[in-house]
Design a protein that fits this description.
Elements: E1 23-26, H1 33-44, E2 48-50, H2 51-59, H3 62-69, H4 71-85, E3 91-93, H5 102-108, E4 112-117, H6 120-127, H7 139-157, E5 160-163, H8 169-179
Parallel strand pairs: 1-3, 1-4, 2-3, 4-5
Helix pairs in contact: 1-8, 2-4, 3-4, 6-7
Bound molecules: shikimate-3-phosphate.
């Protein structure tokens, strides 16, 4: 990691949002999808769906699913939950790897997709003490590798990109609300 790596250094994206809900938040682990999603939903007065939380509610803790059944099984149940959530009039936050599924990418083509970006330096403290199975061994280096692998996917599906590295949650919510036309 670079000591002066204070911005995400991802692409800038700004396209028109889709005409209707949901607003979908994507991006790497620790980018703030859940925190921002919750506040955005409150601001817009609509429901918030966190697909990771819905998976946990139905199937148990994610690290235990990975340990017991493996990542491929996790992706199957994740797809089921994501397919359902993307049909709801809500703010929907997706787990970082949900976009790996081609059917999810296809669905996202007609949704308003916000890509939350974050630099390694800003994300490191946010990841500390977590129990994310994909970075349990490799830490921030694993996070960087996964982020780099997925960057082209995020870039291809995003309608709006926001670097969360040095922005407050309130400011990010304002940016998304303004982009969406202040409506829901
Ligand atoms: C994953 C991200 C996690 C969770 C799972 C796998 C990924 O969600 O779905 O650990 O593949 O990037 P967050 O992005 O909310 O951490």
């Amino acid at each position: 990691m670079n000591a002066d790596d204070t911005t995400a250094e991802d692409a800038t994206v700004r396209r028109e949002p889709a005409p209707a809900l949901p607003i979908v938040l994507v991006g790497p682990m620790g980018a703030g999808k859940s925190r921002v999603g919750q506040r955005l939903a409150t601001e817009l007065g609509i429901p918030f769906v966190d697909t990771d939380a819905r998976i946990v509610g139905r199937y148990g803790p994610i690290d235990e699913i990975f340990a017991r059944e493996g990542e491929d099984y996790f992706r199957v149940i994740e797809r089921e939950v994501v397919a359902e959530a993307l049909g709801e009039s809500a703010v929907v936050s997706l787990g970082g790897g949900a976009v790996l599924h081609p059917a999810t990418r296809e669905q996202l083509a007609s949704r308003s997709v916000v890509w939350l970006q974050v630099s390694p330096q800003a994300v490191a403290p946010r990841l500390a003490g977590g129990n994310r199975p994909l970075i349990a061994e490799g830490g921030i280096e694993a996070w960087i590798r996964i982020r780099d692998e997925r960057r082209p996917i995020y870039e291809s599906i995003a309608d709006l990109a926001i670097d969360t590295s040095r922005r407050s949650v309130a400011r990010i919510v304002d940016d998304i609300t303004e982009w969406f036309g202040g409506r829901a």
